[in-house]
Write a structure and sequence with these properties.
single chain; about 450 residues; mainly alpha; about 75% helix; about 0% strand; globular; disordered N terminus; disordered C terminus
Length: about 450
């Protein structure tokens, strides 16, 4: 490429797609694409579409582009060294408390590196399901580090991408911890930074994925599905088959709340287009399909699916996955009028959620527990379960609106209106709208003495 300000030629883009360019020229093409050139990206997408009728399988766009961009600045050797150093730097931070870690990140230039940022982001992904509050602290740390990355060293647009991605990671962690309002605020911040970034469509897509998950938690199901349609268009534009299939599975899981038949169709189609076998994608789709069959009245088929894919549930040891399996079994048993079996597994899921500090899930599943107790004519036990959460709500820092919704539910149980009024679904929706967890700084042991 004679002049860096010019677009790559059609021949260069074609050779880039076939991995035939010299390394230096390939890096120049990637850097050009990272600047947000829609013309060249569209040309590449057209080349891929002409080569294959279906969406092609491509490597992770974000990882490839980031590595190429950083390699253009640092060199492969320096990149590897930076990641190795990051491992050693984390060993220094690992045993420190959260405030001390933040102080070190803010004040010690040695720790302000992309390598350490990338290392922390990896820790967040592995922690969010099992230890949500720990993941929130890690996400704050990753964000602080991203805010201190040197734009002269890594590039201003790239640093803004890192900051935007860090905010998205914070939103994901906060959502897992039940802080829906905090997650929404983090997503808004992330969107602002990505607007000043490189224009990487994968970053935009992943922001949409996380936003849709939050909308789902808040009960805005149709809005979440609509947003994911935009995400699907982004993944299609860059021929990312894996991202496309994953997003369709996410859509199916949300559709399950209001259109079970369509959700089954979407989940099955997603499995067909998944480019390579993936345990998590397979399990997510099968779980949604089973949930929907149960909702449609085919409880035997739902139970058979769970039993068939029990081996997949067993490959994930986090409390979210284990809790989802128990919750689904509880729903199946309840729909089949096996109320004693339903009560056992729902109680087990509740205890698991509570001990894992998954307060939002523990609260929502209590509604199903109460419904089963009423069917078993255990009204006093149902009231005890409902009232037992009230002091916890106060410690968790819920807003008055959420407390009022819960008290409305308790009155419905007292008056015999819980089942006739379909209160489980109604209260679940209202809680999603009003949920807000602990204020910052509250000690976790105070929040949940049994954890």
């Amino acid at each position: 490429m004679a002049q860096k300000s010019l677009h790559p030629t059609a021949d260069q883009l074609s050779r880039f797609l076939r991995a035939e360019l010299e390394r230096s020229d390939a890096i120049s093409v990637v850097r050009h694409l990272l600047k947000g050139c829609l013309q060249c990206r569209s040309f590449l997408a057209g080349l891929r579409r002409r080569g294959k009728k279906r969406i092609s399988v491509v490597p992770d766009y974000t990882a490839v582009c980031r590595k190429a961009e950083l390699a253009a600045i640092l060199s492969d050797a320096a990149l590897k060294e930076e990641k190795q150093i990051a491992t050693q730097l984390w060993k220094i931070l690992a045993d420190r408390d959260h405030p001390t870690r933040l102080l070190i990140i803010k004040n010690d230039r040695r720790f302000q590196t992309w390598g350490l940022y990338d290392h922390i982001e990896g820790l967040i992904r592995g922690t969010a399901k099992a230890e949500p509050f720990k993941a929130v602290d890690l996400a704050h740390l990753g964000l602080e580090l991203a805010l201190h990355l040197d734009a002269r060293e890594y590039g201003a647009g790239q640093v803004n991408d890192f900051i935007g991605s860090a905010y998205r990671g914070l939103a994901h962690a906060k959502r897992r911890a039940g802080d829906l309002q905090g997650a929404a605020e983090a997503l808004a911040q992330g969107r602002d930074y990505l607007g000043e970034g490189t224009g990487d469509p994968v970053e935009d897509a992943m922001l949409g994925v996380t936003t849709a998950a939050l909308l789902n938690d808040m009960g805005e199901f149709r809005q979440a599905v609509g947003l994911l349609n935009s995400v699907l268009r982004l993944f299609r534009s860059i021929d990312d088959a894996r991202g496309f299939a994953y997003t369709r599975i996410q859509q199916a899981s949300i559709l399950a709340f209001y259109d079970s038949a369509e959700a089954i169709k979407v989940a099955e189609e997603a499995l067909e287009i998944l480019p390579e076998y993936d345990n998590f994608a397979e399990l997510s789709a099968r779980h949604t399909i089973a949930w929907c069959y149960n909702d449609l009245g085919d409880h035997d088929e739902a139970l058979q699916i769970v039993r068939t894919y029990d081996y997949l549930y067993g490959r994930f040891d986090d409390p979210v996955t284990a809790g989802q399996r128990l919750w689904l079994l509880g729903k199946i048993y309840a729909k089949s009028r096996s109320y004693e079996a339903a009560s056992i597994v729902l109680d087990e899921a509740y205890d698991l959620y509570l001990s894992s500090n998954l307060f939002f899930e523990a609260t929502l599943i209590t509604l199903d527990r109460i419904e089963v107790m009423i069917y078993r004519k255990q009204v006093e036990r149902a009231l005890e379960a409902a009232r037992k959460l009230v002091p916890r709500f106060k410690k968790w820092g819920l807003k008055q609106e959420a407390m009022d919704v819960w008290r409305l539910m308790i009155r419905a149980v007292e008056n015999g209106d819980f089942l006739p009024g379909n209160m489980s679904s109604r209260i679940s929706f209202e809680l999603r709208q009003t949920w807000f967890p602990r204020p910052p700084g509250v000690d976790l042991k105070e929040l949940n003495p049994t954890a």
